[in-house]
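Example 3.
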Amino acid sequence: MSTTTLAALVPALPALGALAGLLLGRRAPGFVRPLAVLPTLAAAALAVAVAVRQGGGTPVRAATELAPTGNEALPIQLALNLDGFAVLVAVLVGVVATCVQLYSTGYLRDDPRYASYAALVSLFTAAMFLVVYSDDLIVLLVGWEVMGICSYFLVGHYWETPAARAASLKAFLVTKLGDVPFLIGILALASETGSFRISTVVTRLTSSLSGFELTHPTLIALLLLAGVAGKSAQLPLHSWLPDAMAGPTPVSALIHAATMVAAGIYFVARLLPVFTASAAALVVLAVLAALTMTGSALAALAQDDIKRVLAYSTISQLAYMAAALAVADRGAAVFHLLTHGAFKALLFLAAGVLIHTAGTNSLTVMARSGGIAKRAPDAFWTMTIALLALAAVPPFSGFFSKEAVLAGAEHAAFGNAHAPFEGAHAAPVSAGWIVLVAGLVTALLTAAYAARLWLLAFRGTPAVAPLAVRSEKAAEHVPEQVPQQAPETELAHPGPAHRPAHRAEQEAADSDALAHHPAPAVMTVVLWVLALPSLVLGLTFLVLPDWFDGASLTPTLTTSVLATGVTLVGGLLTYATWRHSSALAALHPEHDADPGVLLLGPLHRHAAAGFHLDALYSATVVRPVRSAARLVRFLDREVVDGYVAGAGRGSRLLGAAVRRAQTGNVQTYLGALLTGSLVLAVIAVVAVTGNGGA
Amino acid sequence: MHLAYPAVLAVLLFCVGLYGVLARRNAILVLMAVELMLNAVNLNLVAFDVWLRDTLHAGQALTLFTIAIAAAEIGIGLAIVLLVHRNRGSSDIDRLRDLRESGGPPGGDSSGGSRDEKSVAPATDNDADNDAESGSDQQVQGPAAGRRHA
Amino acid sequence: MSVLLAQPLAAGHPGFLSPSGVEIVFVLVGIVTLGAALVTVATRQLVHAALWLVVALGGIAVEYLLLTAEFIAWVQVLIYVGSVVVLILFGLMLTKAPIGRSPDADSGNRWIALAVSLAAATTLVTVVVDAFRSTWINVQEPTGPGSGSSEVTGTALFRHWVLPFEVLSVLLLAALVGAIVLSKRNKAGER
């Protein structure tokens, strides 16, 4: 089979698996697991095969016309574009999706809706493959939107809980909010460049011979950025991602590591010439990325829910990638995408095991109960590796990719940026400085929250007084974003009733009473499989430039020393604070062992609430929309319906009035009859004399 | 002679009869007003017959027919009025309102209830019947029996 | 009758201000007739109404005579004055009509009735006067029996109108039977 056929099979297989799973799920439950795992596994294997065949050489392209658009020059084509970026991201997607599917067979083994869940995950994967391989903007948009609807269904998997319903709606609406300008941007781009083919667009923009220039590069870039911000959870539209934790943990792993959020970064990477054509767009992207990475890192430091910590961490890391794109270094961006995909999937899956074991999402409760490291040793070790990778400690994968980003920023800041492709404008110096400073600050914060997560989850000591309330947090009136969300294990194993969360916490705190949850073997295996790339994927910086644009991804000395230094500082600072706070907590049970409270100080309250962005949106968007809806309802009920009801009431009144004439008195009838005939006679006479006489 | 004289007289007679038909309460008075209207028409017929000098004398022949029909009409009409009077105890036209739209408050003493109630209570006119048709002493049981038989 | 009508035909169409004798008599009798009719529909005494009806019908019979319709006039007297009014009087008695003034002789819609009839009168008089202002009836017979004599009427009736005449007799028979059935029904039911 040719490479093209193999590549076409990659998105097709999971899509067919999803279809079969949806059709057979109810009738043949025995086929659900193979149908979920095997197509994804095969697609992953094919993606690896495609990557090996392509080998980072010249891009393989193939196209067949899909639909005419009325403009002969602008057909929609089912086109493939297999270059180094595409095949490698596809491999990542395939591997992570396979791991997630395998993990889900264990994690959701008792879930009554597993069949539809697995089918939707397959469809999600297929859509991401489509986005990755597609060379046509419209086909890419199709995959993009399919991902949106899949994320809606999957985040709302536990639709019995109001939090999940709200989160799924929020994810859908926020991403759609970005997709509208995204669609407009795609159409504007296609009409200016005269093609929906990404490769054609890029060629025209980068070719030094044609001298082609976009007329409105900033406008198009900003429109596309809106969609990217929605999908990849960047600043104005990021708020759906922390709430999306209401979905099952494997779905979070899938969304955060390989699909959905990666799509936005990948899209910008593919169309980077469009963005580099406008320096303003790059600066905007840099500012947004800087704000996003620092803000969400601070927020991650304040969260109590382990999955929300990871979600804010994802937003922060995605901002790293966006920052790399802002300095026009797409090699670094995709490199970080790959390593981040590996260790973030590992983090989420390990967190799932932790939640499974501890029976709670809350870090505080985990810290109180303690001993989780002994009960889930695999999760402990793999999560340690992943957190080290996240914090960019030197030998792990995250170090190299983050250094690549920072090196790109440094090049841009000092004006010696290498042009990633022919004819590209150099990234603005201001963008370089912004990214560099924000990146270093975020490196400190990342180390801090990674250390906090690790310490609280695994180094907690069983508290003497387990009933101690979280008095400091309570005193600060921490607004809980997802207040007392029931642990997923409750939902995954439907009991007689949902136990109240506080009762679950008590049980979790009482380690003797807590039944030991052994994680299924398949889940553990998956963790170790993913731990391998988290360890060694960073070393591929030696070979990856051959697959990408050829720019070096080697860490530079200055940024390496700086970043590793601040990372160590962050980690040690957190450790010291934790020692202090846990000692304090041991003495005074009303104190919290959480080092984040002490580290952030007065900022903690705002960071825990995500810097009140949700409240802001609620005030500026939700409430006006609601009042507008009330107005429309009022107009509909009172005004429009008033006319309808008025017509009925009017005819009824008329009927009542006419009915009054039915007196039963013959003489009245006769009088009316004669009056009428008299009037008619007069009219007739007047008409006749008026016509004939005069 | 001017044709206007009989024509205007006929018109005025007709309108007087019209007023009587519309305004009178007693059914027999209404019948009298109807006779006036018929006579007004007859007067017109005769006057125009004389004016046109019709060889067939259609106007006068029609007048004769009208007179005969009027006689038949008054006979039948009086019979109906008598029957109504016997059943309802009244010959007032504006009380015969069974065909009016129901739902309003019952107005008039003979239109309030159902037909059966009214037809069972004709006791007031029994002696009138006895006067008119002497010797029918079994009249007391009233029209209800006849209705039952029918 | 023809002796009374001594108006020469050649006089053409004289105006309303120089009426002939026949016209004067016609108008006087017409006024009496109209007055009797008005009293008939306006009086509160039911029996008086029937008697005033006699006057009105008799007045119309006189008008027939003035229009040279002698046979019709006598038929009018015979049938209306003779039988119809008698029937009406019987009807009044059988329905226990009150002797003397009855305050509720007129129903509630007499004002509507008045308005309707006045409007009708206005309209019809206007139209009729406008149409027949200058039409002249020559009531003077040249020779032979008058056009309204019983000979002429009988000839026309039995020569040209035989079939309707016979049908009319059937109608009268049906009315007779109907009236009997209506009046006698109760007795038949009882026996």
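The domain at 19-160 of chain C is CATH 1.20.120.1200 (Four Helix Bundle (Hemerythrin (Met), subunit A)). The interface with chain A takes residues 107, 109, 112-113, 116, 119-120, 123, 127 of chain C (CB under 8 Å).
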